[in-house]
Each structure stands twice: as C-alpha cells, then as structure tokens.
User: Fold Cytochrome P450 from Clitoria ternatea.
Amino acid sequence: KKICSNTTTKLPPGPKTLPLIGNTHQILGSMPHHCFRNLANKYGPLMHLKLGDVSNIIVTSPEIAKQIMKTHDLNFSNRSNLVLSNIISYNGTDIAFAPYGHYWRLLRKICTVELLTVKRVQSFRSIREEEVLELVKTIGASEGSIVNLSGRIFLVTYGIVARAAFGKRSRYQKIFIAAVEEQLKLLGGFSVADLYPNSKVVQMMSRTKAKLKKVHAQIDGILQDILDEHRNRKRKGEVEDLVDVLLKFQQDKDSEYPLTEDNIKAVILDIFAGGGETSSSIVEWAMSEMIKNPKLMEEAQDEIRSVFDRQGYVDETKLHQLTFLKSIVKETLRLHPSVPFLLPRQNREKCQINGYELPENTRIVINAWAIARDPNYWAEPETFKPERYLNSSIDFRGTDFEFIPFGAGRRMCPGIVFAMPNMELPLAQLLYHFDWKLPNGMKNEELDMSESFRFTLRRKNELCLSPITRRPIPQ
Ligand code: HEM
Assistant:
C-alpha cells in the first residue's frame, strides 16, 4: 500500500550541482545551519542539495516540517543510514539511528515505560541535587577569580547523566566523557565518508572514520567493564540505575525485551550522548543570553530568590514555580537549539510533498534552527525575548511546528522529562547564589556569541565569568 500519492517526478529546486562534489562547495567554511537558511531563502523551504554523491532534502518551513513529521510521519520515520553514525550506534541498533521497525519500537517502549519516565527521573533527584550543590560549592570557593563556567556546566550535567546511567561515580567517568565528546566532534563535520558512502576508495581512506572507530572501541571497552561490574556487584539499597534496569530485562528469560550485550551498550551510549551535551549547551547559552541582557538576569534572580529565600537553598520541590526561568529555557531552545538539524530522517516510500517528488530513501534534513527564526511566525525573531511565552501556549512538545527543538512525531526526543531538571536546577542554583560579571571590565554587550557546529550547536568560546556570592552556600 502506497503511503503517499504519486503524480509528478520533479525533484524540489536547489542550486546547480557540480560533477563529483554536488553542492558541497556551497556549504564549506560556514556554519551549515546559516548556510542552508541562506540557500533556502533563494530556493524555497523544500530544497534539494547534493552533498558529495548523496541527495539531501532540506526543509525550512513549519508547514513542510509538519507534512514530514505529522501528515506523512509513518513514511518518514526511518533514519538516514550514515556511515559514521553506524559506527557509534553499534550498526544502527541504538534508539536514535535504528531503522523504523519492531526493534526500534521495542526500544522506544523501554524508554517510555522504564528508562525515561517521570517516576524514574524523580528517582534521580538526590543525584542531581548533590551534583549541582557540588558545583555551587566549587564556584563559591573561586570567588574573586574567573570561573570557566562552560567547563563546570558540562562536568555537572555529564556527572548527573553518568550517575543516573551507571550508579555511583564511575572510575571511568573522565575518560568516558572525553571519548563521548570526541565522538560527537568527529560526527559533527561533513566527513567525506558520509559524502561518498558508496565509494570503496573513500571509505578505505577516511581518516575521520578510522579515528571514530578507535574512539568507539575505547567506549565499548569501558561500557563492557561497566556491565560486568554491575553483574558482579552486590546491591545495597542504592537507587536503581539505568544499566541495572536494562540488565534486568536481559536476565529475565521471559522478558518481552530480549536485549543483547551490544543492544544495552548502544542504548546507554545514546542516553549519554543525547543527555549530556544537549542540556549543558542550553544552560551555557541561557547564561550567555542573560549576561548580554542583565535586566533578564535580574528578573530571573528576583523570581528564584523570592521562591527560595525562605528556605535559604534551592532544591527541586519548587522548580515548577519558576515561570520566568522556564521561559528563559524555552527561548534558549528556540535561538540555540542543541540539535539544529534534528536527526536526519528518511522516507521508506517515494512521496509527493508540495508538488515535488521525494524518491524513496531520501535523506531529509529539517533546519529546526532556521524554522524557529521564521519571521512569518515569530515577532522580532532574532531577539532573545523570554516574555514572549508568558501569555502564549506555544510549546516544544511537537505540536507547534515553528518550535521543534526536540523534533516531533514518532521519532521525537524521548528525553524531555529527563532533560528539564538537568537544565532548570543548575540554572536556578547559579542564579540564586551568585551575581555574575564579565571579567576584566568587559561590557555585557561585548560578550562573544560565536557558535560552533559539531553535531550539536555549542558556544565557540568558553563562557568565563566572575561570580559574586549573594546567598550563603549550604555546607
Ligand atoms: C535539551 C535537551 C535535548 C534536546 C534539545 C534534544 C533534542 C533531540 C532531537 C532534536 C532529537 C531528534 C528528534 C527527531 O528526529 O524528530 C532527539 C532524539 C533523541 N533524544 Fe534527545 N534531546 C535532548 C535531551 C535528551 C535526553 C536527556 C535524552 C536521554 C536521556 C535524549 C535521548 C534521545 C534519544 C534516545 C533520541 C532518539 C529518538 C529516536 O530516534 O527514536 N535526549 N533529541
């Protein structure tokens, strides 16, 4: 049965392609999300771009995003098979890169009923509070000096995810985090291996591919040790971690989730890679935006301090009262979506969209970054204005297609509930205890906001600030 009708064979418009390299020359040397938006302004919101020998369809409007991720979601629920992502995803057996089908549905179900539920996320509350308190203590001890806030934020978020996934602080934590970061960095560039997936010569010679394989082997070794340790250890009243949950399925012979060793490693790695970098970069961008707009920072601080001053410290019990802080997080997700192109999708059958034909198995890239700045949908789209959400119901849960930092439809991010406190708690703590200044008398408006695209969208330069303690730090 055909999912979409078929009447024309015209590909969407796009710039002229050159032999061999296609349009690759048009995107080199600039931030790809900016470059794709500029090209879309010329060729339209449904655009064909040939990168290497791979056809890409670039989507740059909420209407077309909705057609892909709602109207034709079932057809477009496959992932595009990338050479590099195959290496890190145990051959597409993780959640993010698994092809649409029975196995992927099983993994999603494990997420929604076991791994990423509200209850499970709540069970990690004390882990988050401990890790963030440690952050605040370290910063408090650095009063009078300049703090590399970016570095601190990444450590704390990865620390939380690592403890949720592996239980106690793992002795491998540092090298594991470094390896996962390296993996994301290698994945971020336009590697020739993915531009020419069918060329045997290119595949043999790709340096990125070779490096990625090496890093992945290191990650695999660490994950294997962690699984073995979990099997052998005696549990005594600790919070059940995510590896425990997955091993339980593996050990239960009647389980409806028959997971292999590699399946478990693939899932844990997804949660690690998906949960660490994304949330940290939102906290980092939110702090940057507030440094640039000190009035917003003051407003957020007033709100947090008025909610928590009576008890004298921040915990998770009253985070839901922080309406303004939530708007700051939303606006940060709009202007600095951590995964600006979502994850590439692919249609299982050929399909008509807006009168153009997308042949089967076409790679679909949704420019969520550009969509969230569409002037037809957003007033002052380039301005950071958290107050725009105060009287609006617009949300990132996959129904407002002008705002899709977590994607939408069947392949939407399953980690929102997990991500939220990892962003809100560090922000609330950083703003409750401290005022923040740029070092060396730099003016707020001078803060550099350059981006770096490495699969995720991070600050190019680390955010370094001077803290001034305003509320005593619990010892
Ligand atoms: C600010 C935080 C986060 C952002 C912005 C984010 C964004 C995204 C996006 C854009 C996708 C692709 C959606 C699509 O293709 O439609 C995705 C998928 C995914 N995310 Fe997240 N994510 C975040 C946090 C997390 C966390 C905390 C976890 C796990 C603990 C997680 C796990 C995943 C997984 C497993 C997928 C693959 C889903 C699938 O293919 O079925 N993410 N995320």
